[in-house]
User: Which sequence fits this backbone?
C-alpha cells in the first residue's frame, strides 16, 4: 500500500526515533511503498496564520507553501503517525500539520449552503498511530484519551468510509525497562509488516 | 483573585477576540486582577525545540523569554481562562504548544521522592474554557471534545482537587447569526463577572 509516515519528535536520539526506525523496517518487510515526512527536520511551521485563516473557505486558494504536504496526503492509502503523546495529545508540531494541511479542498469541502463537510480523502483506508505515553494507561483513561479520539474519530471521518484505525501505544515509557522498550519496538515492526 | 486569560486566534477581528474582551471585562467588573496572554500577538513559537526537550527535566527548562513571561503569569494565578477556537476537536497547535512549553516540571507538576507526578498548580481554583466550534453540539459530542478534555481533565489533574471547572461552548459558529453571537458574548461577560 502507498504509505505516508509522519514523524514528529525534536530529537533524533530519542526513543521515538527508534520507534520510527522499527516502523519503517516493518513497512519495508511488508513490501509497502513508503514516503516519510519528518516535521522537525523539515522545519515545518505549525502555526495556522492569519493568512491561512483568510483563505480558509476560499475557492482555489494558493497553497504553494505546503504543496508537498498536500501532495503526500492525497497520494497515500495508508497513514502512519509516529509521535510522543504530550499533554494527552499530539505535539504542537503535529497538531499544526493537521491544522494547516487538512484544509479546504484537500481534506474536505463545504458546498455552499451546506452545513456539513464533504470528505475528500476517500483514498485513505488505514490510519495507524504509534505513540508513547509518559503516564500510565489509567491516567490516560482518566484524561479521556483525547489524542486517540482526534485521530480515530475527528480525522477518520474525512477518509474512506471503511477506513480502519490501529492504535499501537506504549504507556509509562519514562519508567520502562530496556526489555519493555525492546519488546515494544518488536511489536511495532510486526504490526506494521502485517 | 488573580486571573490569567490565554487568548488564541490569528485574526484580531475574530469572534474569539470578542469573547476574550468580554471575559476580561467581566473579570474586571468582579474586581479580579487580569493578565492577558495573546499568543499570536506575542509571536509565541509553539513547537518545542530539541534544546528545550533536552533542558526539560533539568534545572533550567525555560530557554525562551516568552515562556518565562507565561510561567510568571501562570504561577500564583487562581483562575486560568482559555479562549480559543476548537480545530479538529482539539486545541490549535499554538495553544497546545503553549501548554507543552509553559506547563513544565516545577511549574505545573513536581516529582515526589518516589518519582511520582504530583500537582504543581496549587493556587488554581478555577479553570474556564471559552471555545467556538464549527460543528454542532451533537457532532462534537459524537466525535469527542479533545480540547475540553485536555484542559478540564489533563490540566486539572495538576491543580488542587477542589478546582472548579466552567465550560462555555459556542457550537455551530459557522452558520450562526449576529444575534446569537452577540448573545453568547454577553453571556460570557455575565458568567465571568459572576465568578
Assistant:
Amino acid at each position: 500500500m502507498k504509505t505516508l509516515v509522519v514523524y514528529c519528535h525534536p530529537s533524533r536520539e530519542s526513543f521515538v526515533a527508534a520507534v520510527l526506525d522499527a516502523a519503517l523496517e516493518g513497512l519495508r518487510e511488508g513490501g509497502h511503498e513508503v514516503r516519510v515526512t519528518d516535521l522537525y527536520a523539515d522545519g515545518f511551521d505549525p502555526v495556522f496564520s492569519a493568512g491561512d485563516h483568510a483563505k480558509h473557505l476560499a475557492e482555489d486558494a494558493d497553497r504553494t507553501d505546503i504543496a508537498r504536504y498536500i501532495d503526500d496526503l492525497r497520494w497515500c492509502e495508508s497513514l502512519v503517525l509516529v509521535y510522543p503523546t504530550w499533554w494527552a495529545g499530539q505535539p504542537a508540531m503535529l497538531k499544526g500539520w493537521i491544522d494547516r494541511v487538512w484544509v479546504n479542498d484537500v481534506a474536505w469541502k463545504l458546498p455552499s449552503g451546506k452545513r456539513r463537510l464533504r470528505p475528500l480523502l476517500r483514498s485513505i483506508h488505514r490510519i495507524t498511530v504509534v505513540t508513547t505515553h509518559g503516564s500510565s494507561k489509567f491516567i490516560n483513561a482518566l484524561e479521556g484519551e483525547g489524542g486517540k479520539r482526534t485521530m480515530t474519530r475527528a480525522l477518520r471521518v474525512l477518509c474512506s468510509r471503511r477506513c480502519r484505525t490501529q492504535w499501537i501505544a506504549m504507556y509509562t515509557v519514562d519508567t520502562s525497562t530496556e526489555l519493555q522498550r525492546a519488546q515494544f519496538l518488536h511489536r511495532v515492526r510486526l504490526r506494521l509488516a502485517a | 483573585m488573580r486571573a490569567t486569560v490565554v487568548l488564541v486566534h490569528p485574526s484580531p477581528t475574530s469572534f474569539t477576540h470578542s469573547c476574550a474582551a468580554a471575559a476580561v471585562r467581566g473579570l474586571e467588573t468582579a474586581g479580579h486582577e487580569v493578565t492577558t496572554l495573546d499568543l499570536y500577538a506575542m509571536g509565541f513559537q509553539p513547537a518545542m525545540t530539541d534544546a528545550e526537550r533536552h533542558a526539560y527535566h533539568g534545572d533550567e527548562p525555560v530557554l525562551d523569554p516568552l515562556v518565562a513571561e507565561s510561567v510568571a503569569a501562570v504561577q500564583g494565578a487562581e483562575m486560568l481562562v482559555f479562549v480559543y477556537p476548537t480545530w479538529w476537536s482539539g486545541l490549535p497547535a499554538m495553544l497546545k504548544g503553549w501548554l507543552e512549553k509553559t506547563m513544565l516540571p516545577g511549574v505545573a507538576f513536581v516529582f515526589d521522592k518516589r518519582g511520582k507526578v504530583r500537582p504543581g498548580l496549587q493556587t488554581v481554583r478555577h479553570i474556564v474554557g471559552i471555545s467556538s466550534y464549527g460543528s454542532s453540539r451533537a457532532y462534537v459530542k459524537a466525535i469527542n471534545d479533545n480540547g475540553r478534555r485536555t484542559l478540564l481533565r489533563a490540566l486539572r489533574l495538576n491543580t488542587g482537587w477542589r478546582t472548579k471547572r466552567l465550560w462555555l461552548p459556542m457550537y455551530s459558529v459557522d452558520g450562526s447569526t449576529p444575534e446569537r453571537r452577540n448573545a453568547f458574548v454577553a453571556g460570557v461577560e455575565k458568567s465571568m463577572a459572576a465568578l
